[in-house]
Specification:
By secondary structure, the chain is an alpha+beta fold. The chain contains ten helices and 14 strands. The strands form two sheets. Strands 1, 2, 3, 4, 5, 6 and 14 form a seven-stranded mixed beta sheet that branches. A hairpin with a 3-residue loop joins strand 2 and strand 3. The radius of gyration is 20 Å and the shape is globular. The mean pLDDT is 94.
């Protein structure tokens, strides 16, 4: 159903349930609406119990997407009611739907925290290159010149260890705990036919690693880790262009740049590539909770912790991060 439903995303796939249950031990609660033998809607939920945020049902925890996918409003309403019933039975504080577009009346909606960025890909390489704004296109050309000169190299090599080291460094610098290494391995195993890792090297050493997904006609750069030399070598620009170019060659017709918080550096970077922000309309049914969660750097409490995390030595952050990350779904 997820493979064919127009509103479904990569984060609705059942593999996320297997992955999260195996690595974090949280229980999946995946709902489906059916008429007779035909499925007409789905809602993936993860039952997350955290000492930081309490117990909540999240669709889909540890990802940026989820929510209700349904053929019609009757099926959507049915799934929303079933989610509330499950939440009450499990004594959850709230049910959270990380939906792109709010479709459930009576639920709280937040639409000014995150924005999504995507746009169409042309079949022709030149058309995609010309669609990049002029200043950013000039940076990509410099990165390609460095590639031609042998100053940089790249490979889609699935190097999980290089990815994890660079991603952990990047998250520490942003004040965010890293997920456990086994999550990265389990992710690549679960989605082996939908995920790849692009590694960019300078002088033989990895300086940037990009883990991307492919779903239907979309190419989705998702996790990116970079070392201190990545910016000087324009490795970010090179990696994004390579995913655009090679994705289009494989038949992808949408480049999904993922979500970013309003006001974040990544938000501005994606805008500089010519992508227009699209507000994401996350929805919440408050059950035992009195207000919607505020788990982001704009919350002063989390800002203090984030600032302290950035000062940790990398080995300490890598040791403590996975223990904390499982509670930040």
């Amino acid at each position: 159903y997820v493979e064919r439903a127009p509103g479904a995303s990569f984060f609705h796939l059942y593999g996320w349930r297997r992955l999260i249950e195996a690595v974090y031990g949280y229980q999946g609660c995946y709902l489906a609406a059916a008429r007779g033998e035909r499925i007409v809607g789905v809602l993936p939920l993860i039952d997350v119990a955290s000492p930081l945020l309490g117990r909540n049902l999240i669709s889909t925890a540890f990802t940026v997407g989820g929510g209700i996918v349904a053929d019609d409003e009757n099926a959507a309403t049915f799934l929303a009611a079933a989610a509330i019933e499950e939440g009450r039975a499990r004594r959850a504080g709230y049910v959270e739907l990380r939906s792109e577009i709010a479709r459930i009346g009576g639920w709280e909606t937040k639409d000014q925290i995150y924005a999504g960025f995507d746009r169409a890909l042309a079949a022709e390489e030149e058309a995609n290159f010309e669609a990049i704004p002029r200043r950013r296109r000039a940076e990509v050309r410099k990165a390609l010149d460095a590639l031609d000169a042998g100053e940089l190299s790249y490979a889609v090599d699935g190097d999980i260890d290089a990815f994890y080291a660079l991603y952990a460094e990047a998250l520490r610098d942003h004040g965010t705990p890293i997920f456990p290494r086994r999550f990265a391995h389990a992710l690549m195993d679960e989605f082996s036919d939908r995920a790849d890792i692009l590694t960019i090297r300078a002088e033989g050493a990895p300086i940037l690693s990009l883990l991307s997904f492919a779903f239907r006609d979309r190419v989705m750069p998702y996790y990116v880790g970079a070392g201190a030399k990545a910016r000087a070598h324009r490795a970010f620009d090179l990696a994004i262009w390579l995913k655009m170019r090679d994705g289009a060659k494989r038949g992808a017709r949408v480049f999904d740049f993922g979500r970013s918080k309003y006001g974040a550096g990544s938000f501005d970077y994606k805008a500089h590539w010519g992508f227009a922000p699209r507000p994401l309309e996350y929805q919440y049914a408050l059950l035992r909770a009195r207000k919607t969660p505020n788990v982001n750097p704009q919350n002063p409490k989390f800002a203090i912790v984030s600032a302290a995390w950035r000062r940790l030595p990398t080995p300490v952050a890598n040791f403590a991060g996975p223990m904390l990350a499982r509670h930040l779904a």
